[in-house]
Amino acid sequence: MPDELNPPAMAQNFIHDFIDEDIAQGGQFQGMTVHTRFPPEPNGYLHIGHAKAIFVDFGTAEKYGGLCNLRMDDTNPTKEDVEYVEAIQEDIHWLGYDWGGRFFFASDYFEQMYQYAVALIKKGLAYVCELTPEQFKEYRGDVNTPARSPYRDRPVEESLDLFARMRAGEFENGRMTLRARIDLTSGNFNMRDPVLYRINHMHHHRQGDKWCIYPMYDFAHPLEDALEGITHSLCSLEFEDHRPLYDWIIQHCDVPAKPRQIEFARLGINYTVMSKRKLRQLVEEGRVSGWDDPRMPTLCGLRRRGYTPRSIRSFSERNGVSKAASTVEFAFLEHCLREDLNETAQRVMAVLRPVKLVITNYPEGQSETFEVENNPSRPEDGVRTVTFSRELYVEAEDFLPEPVPKYKRLYPGGPECRLKGAYLIKCVGYETDEHGNVTGIAAEYDPDSRGGDPADGRKVKGATIHWVDAATAVDAEVRLYDNLFADAEPDAGDKNFLDCLNPGSLEVLTGSKVEAGLADAQAPASYQFLRQGYFCVDNKDSQPGHLVFNLSVSLKDSFKPGK
Predict the structure, then answer these.
(1) Helix 48-63 and helix 82-95: axis angle, to 10°?
(2) CATH topology of 270-344+473-558 equal to that of 348-469?
(3) What does DSSP say about strands 468-469 and 391-395: parallel, antiparallel, or unpaired?
């Protein structure tokens, strides 16, 4: 793995404490290789919450010199698609992880799962149930009432016959299920004769129409882990109540391994939603441009926004692993990106809302060059050359016809200001259109202040202003992104998350001006636009002759460590 993707070594956590016990002398996995897996369902794109799971699964394997499989949990064909399979692989590789040759599909094991189910029927541990979905809910009982099913004592041979006919496609969807025969009185409702198989006449993205019955996740998952020789099945906390069923299946099926399930808390982040169903709704209703919209919490969206693998891995590492659910500030994710880009991003000048500035006493037709630093944090990155001439572009906000208190930029009769790396200038006038909008600024420069320092050593009271040479400037489209949701908790309570959308989450600027050296910029290059923020080349829409930059993160850090 490239060094630039490696954050500090994975910190110790309670999962590792369990693993240490398991592989120690006398432990259940003594002398065995630690073997984990990452098992996403290919029904959508991975998001920042999955990044934590990837970090836990692959990172744990790395820590112990073990193995981590990639497995597509494709047991429900309703929303699964090869598009998502390919995207998941791309995202994991982008984060810097690899599964070697251990890439599997749950559907690879359908025949074996079916035979395990048959074996459970023969042992009297499973039966075919004909309760309708409505009856199933009615008969489930409550904390004081046991569940019931009139089919629980169905003869083994009859269940075997019906299960085979279910597989053969004889029955319609919802007509029958295969249920485990465990305990209808259990306080854990997952153990009240849970469904193992349901009928679903739907085309499968890999199996075609071979199957019309599909295993439930709670049945398939432990079998997949066991068949792949997984030692530690690391999953999110909502599966803690499912662990007794996981262990029951491992115990009663003749599987080659006995994995251990360990649960950890999911990652929650404010100002976003991470339900794939809700993210899909945003895409399908056109609320965003696609799964890779830079406002989405998907890994492809974050990548397009300019997030780096190192920043996301650092974010995952520093959030730690615990049993306690918590919500992390989105500002902390931005903080991790800002930290990374501050070290690595080249500094350039870009004028987002340009207005022309004419230096009236600068010789017409003259041009010169200046050397400016690429990154003050990395002297080894050297300098670059920018051109300078009589006409420049500066930010509209760097000029006011009439100043406000403490305004130290350009205005008629105002203080001298530095043009970054070039000369001192002083505003001497301006022009407007018929609507009163400023269309041009006039200024005079001090020829003896090359580099920004006056020859006589006088104090400069005005601000330092960035600029772009009008003669060589390159046009660019700039997209300014903010949180997709205006509400910090769009998923909380009885809120409709769509009502929480931020109408100002995207502002598109056309006609922005950037240094000539950016003319050939290509994704995934990231830059710090001086005084503006960190921007990246859009990996979808930017092309030669039509540069598109996305705001990755502002310069101002709203996250305060330790608060």
Answers:
(1) 60
(2) yes
(3) antiparallel
The reported pTM is 0.91
Q: Determine how β-strand 177-180 pairs with β-strand 195-199.
A: antiparallel
Amino acid identity of residue 95, one-letter, is: L
Residue 461 is a catalytic residue: no
User: What are the tens digits of pLDDT across the range 57-91?
Assistant: 999 999 999 999 999 999 999 888 899 999 999 99
pLDDT of residue 160: 98
Query: pLDDT value at position 560?
Result: 66
The CATH number corresponding to 270-344+473-558 among 3.40.50.410, 1.10.3370.10, 2.40.240.10, 3.30.1240.10 equals 2.40.240.10
User: Considering 63, 140, 266, 280, which one is annotated as catalytic?
Assistant: 266
CA distances to 378, 379, 421, 530 from 375, rounded to whole Å, are 5, 7, 14, 11
**Would you call 154 a catalytic residue per the annotation?**
no
| 3 pLDDT more than 50 | no
End-to-end CA distance of the chain: 34
- Token duo for residue 198: 């349901």
Cα gap 414→404, rounded to integer Å: 11
Residue extents of the structural domains in the chain: 110-218, 270-344+473-558, 348-469
Give the 3-state secondary structure percentages of the chain, helix then strand then coil, rounded to 5.
30, 25, 45
CA angle 348, 350, 356 (to 5 degrees): 135
**Topology (CATH level 3) of domain 110-218:** Glutamyl-tRNA Synthetase; domain 3 (3.90.800)
Tell me how far the alpha carbon of residue 107 is from its chain's centroid. 27
Rg (CA), the chain: 31
| Residue 86, CA distances (Å) to 42, 89, 365, 488, 541 in order | 9, 5, 55, 32, 21
- Annotated catalytic residue, options 52, 276, 390, 409: 276
Residue 41 annotated as catalytic: yes
CA 422 remoteness from chain centre: 41
The predicted model gives 258-280 an average pLDDT of 94
Q: What is the pLDDT of residues 401-459, one digit of tens each?
A: 999 999 999 999 999 999 999 999 999 999 999 999 999 999 999 999 999 899 999 99
C-alpha separations of 360 from 318, 421, 439, 545 in Å: 54, 19, 16, 31
Beta strands across the sheet bearing 35-38: 35-38, 67-72, 103-105
8-state DSSP, 496: -
pLDDT at 99 over 60: yes
Mind giving me the DSSP string for 366-402?
-EEEEEEES-TT-GGG-EEEEEEESEEEEEGGGB-SS
Phi first, then psi: give them for residue 67, nearest 5 degrees: -125, 150
CATH 3.40.50.720 fits 348-469, yes or no: no
Number of residues written out for the chain: 563
| DSSP secondary structure code for residue 546 in this structure | B
State how beta strands 383-389 and 367-373 pair: antiparallel
- In this predicted model, what pLDDT tens digit does every residue of 290-326 receive, in sequence order? 999 999 999 999 999 999 999 999 999 999 898 888 8
